[in-house]
Amino acid sequence: MKILERVSIVEYEEKYAAGVAKMWNESRDNWGGDAVVTTAEDVVEKEAESTNLHLFLAVVDEEVVGYCGLSEYKEDKGALYIPLLNVHPGYQGLKIGKKLLLQAIDQTVKYGWPRLDLFTWPGNTKAVPLYKKCGFFWEDRDDATHLMNFMPQVLQIEALRPFFDKHDWYSTSVRPIEIKPDGRKEKGFTFYEYRWEAGEEFVRVQFERTGRGISLIETNDWQVEMEVPDFKLLENKDYPVTYQVENFTSEGLEVSLSGNSSPLVNEDLNEETMVESEWSTSSSVQVQVPDQEPSPWKTHPVIGADITINGKRLPLRTGVFPLQAGKVDVRTVQKYWRPRQKGTLYLDVESRMEEKTIWTIKWPRQKVIEWSESSVEVEVEGKGRATIPVSVELLKNGFLNEEVEVEGRTEEGRAFSFRTKIALAFPGFGGKFGGDTDTEWYGYNGPYYVRIEKRNHMVSIGSVRSKEDPLLLMTPKLGHPFSEEFSKKMATSVEYIELAEAFVVKTSLESEAFPGIVLNSYYKIYGDGLVELHHELINNGDNDYKNLHLLQPVFPKYKALTLPEKDGVVIGAEALIPYTEYLRDKDLSERWLYTTNRAGDTFGIAWPKEATGRKDDWRFAFDYPLDQLPSGQKICRGPIQIGVNVTTHWSDWREMVLGEVNPLPEKPVFEVVPKEGFVSKTGDEVTHSFRSLLTPHVYGTLTVENDANLYRKEVKREDGVTAIDVPIVHERPGLTTLTGTFRSEGRNADFITCQLVQGDQKVNVSQEEDRWTVDNGVLTFTASPSYFPGIYSLCHQGREFLHHQYPEAGPRSWWNPWGGGLRYVMDGVSPFSMMKEETKVGSVSKEDQDGNHWTGICLATTFHEHEKVKGVTLKQYALTLPEVPVVAVYAEIEQGAPRTFAAEKIALEAFLKPDENLSLCYARIPTEGVFHTYYAGVEEYELESGPSVVIGSDGKKDHLMMVHSQTRKQAEMYMNQDVFLVESVHEWSASSQKAAAVRPTFFVIGEHEEPWKQHPFHRISFKGI
């Protein structure tokens, strides 16, 4: 049996979810080769939230091989829509797509809808012949590849039914099929034509593009046609519209004609006659200009009539574009204005008249700008354009929204006039205002704005100073089932509300899918770039609603995306901009997202506790379950928060929207990570895993090199994994470095990481008088509280890395007393004051997040003398592991003072000298500039440090890498002829009897010559911090 004969078209049920997932995973090449991995659970969730009226599946021997959704078209009235059509690549060319499309057309006819639309992309040339053969016309547009199918209307015309009852419309179609946009252009119109032939019988039907209606029908027996003189018609001018009927039979036709045009068309048409051969009639029509210019996304105003032939109705409709005699636009090339600033506006004028005209434009008096002249005169060619610079002075930041009067005359002296609206925003510092153009509503506060499209309530949030495109809030939806009704509705009202702290734009949308429900949206724009969105639902109807949901989709650009998970924050450090489908939305542990681009523009997104942030097909969305909304009641929800350049780092955005929270470590999207943890013991097998924190499968070849051993593993796409594992036994203790590559068909990566391998030797802590020394077998560090309250010496295999003058602190450079080494310094506490306090030292063992024990010393200083911090105890920890050349340093602050400390600073100072000669010691700092290495002991430098810095000296292969805490406020370096200082500044707060902690900084000694981009140290924390 042929495959096509085994294909059945069925309605989707959950039992098909696994088959649908399999089809999508095997159809990637149909959709650009993306790496999205779909599961049965994904399908169940997506289809449960879908706005589809029907979902048709093509099934062959229980395998799902085709998919076709059918929903209401959200961009225009009067049409259903195919949001997604797919045929499994292994089953293409077998007419399965045709069966699915014909099923969708049949269902559209059953519902009584006149049209079926879909979108595709210009390069989808394989599918275009199928679409056209099934009745679709490709619209000639620049902004979208949009196809319209009028077959449902044709098949519902009673007068044509005899032909289509006898003949299959698909097989009798003789329409030319070409891989290009369709249409015959004439007098500004675009006409689409169907033609069917079966022996001596034929039918021809012509549709006009913008009115989406029939302009001509011809059969063997008769022809009806309407003719409009031009597509663009001037308002208040009489135009003749002709209707013609031809009778090709020997019997007369009973014909009646009644006008059925849009409300903007003035027409009086009502006639009846008997047509023996040929009959035509003309009516005089006038058009009015609508409040909004007709959009290519919508059906235009139409001129038309219902003609009946022998009692059978034939609807004729032709779309038109009503115009004034001219159009005036005012524009500026300047983004930002300040009061009393003088500048230039550009007046763009367009004449719709045939002859040359002279216009006089009179400027209205208003409070936003002052015109240099009260009027301007311009000569415009027939149907021509002109632009004129106009000098102005800004009176105040605001929205210029005025009607201007245009008086004109032709060369023959005939006078005319019209009034037109000009609209332009003048944003500037502190300017809070709103206004609207023909197509959009705006709200501004300083450079920040909210822009709302009138036709579909799509909202853009951005800044005029940003280099990034605005964030897009898609049309809200009510459900279940979710309705797309608001996507083709204009708000019933818009209000502008100025508050002391913000500017608010309020829009109101009335639901028909849920009668009586009004959705009010409040967009609150703050002057610092924060925008808050509150929703208010009011039930003005008689029905009580239960289990109502409000869905607010958003479409961010996921550049350098940051998202929170339970054990850290996923950081998008790659150039890859992920799709929404790549996100693991169920792993989100907190209510926020954050993105940034290379220019430094940031977007923060956050949602309230009562909402769920989740995927909504290719969008992200916030889902509010509303439970009950009784008649006469209202519910308020929100706010959803959007931050436009509000913070420069994700941690600040997180703290802003969540309040006081514990810090989270960063995790890159892709990395090589040991499953058993970053700390192991000699002889242990550690599984090093190259893994992705996104949903797409990882496939390719992973190569890892460690201690001259090479490990290689290859994984194929069909293996369906998100991690590639390589088990390695680490035989030697210390800091073992792993380098490697990942190669796939589409990407190449290089990486370097490390493993901390503990040896068998124990860490020894010894005391000699007041000198405390920690020895882990490969390095030692020493503290002496009577000398200076810090670690003054750090030696690796006998080589000193710290700079000090033990046994006696004294003056050096800008400091007195100076003890060097490394220590934490509390703000406002001088070295003299610190030396006055008693510091106690003791051995200590601390457990990290994976249960590994680090050993070292703690220096505890309780302040009794210093007035500001009296009662506070500063604990400085220095810890290490057996035979591992790494030292972890962190601080705890026990706040015993009877006061609260807020936003206090504490700095970690490290004075470094890895060679006896300071001028041979250097810091290596990767930057965007040309200099990367700076030497101490030569001249004075102040330098900004990155997340980590490599310290070395000429002639020595071992370097010290100082890895700063991610919670630092800043990190800098200072060099002069006497010292080499690296400093990181942190912030702490604590009320009385509470404690605060500074996360660890790591000192790593090895042969690394550059700071590592990825490493494990930021994830190491100690219990109690």
UniProtKB/TrEMBL annotation:
SUPFAM superfamilies: Acyl-CoA N-acyltransferases (Nat). GO terms for molecular function: acyltransferase activity, transferring groups other than amino-acyl groups. It holds the Pfam family Acetyltransf_1. Residues 7-156 form the N-acetyltransferase domain. CDD domains: NAT_SF (cd04301). InterPro entries: Acyl_CoA_acyltransferase (IPR016181), Bact_Acetyltransf (IPR050832), GNAT_dom (IPR000182). It comes from the Bacteria. The keyword Transferase applies. This is GNAT family N-acetyltransferase. Residues 281-300 are annotated as: Disordered. Keywords: Acyltransferase, Transferase. The keyword Mitochondrion does not apply.
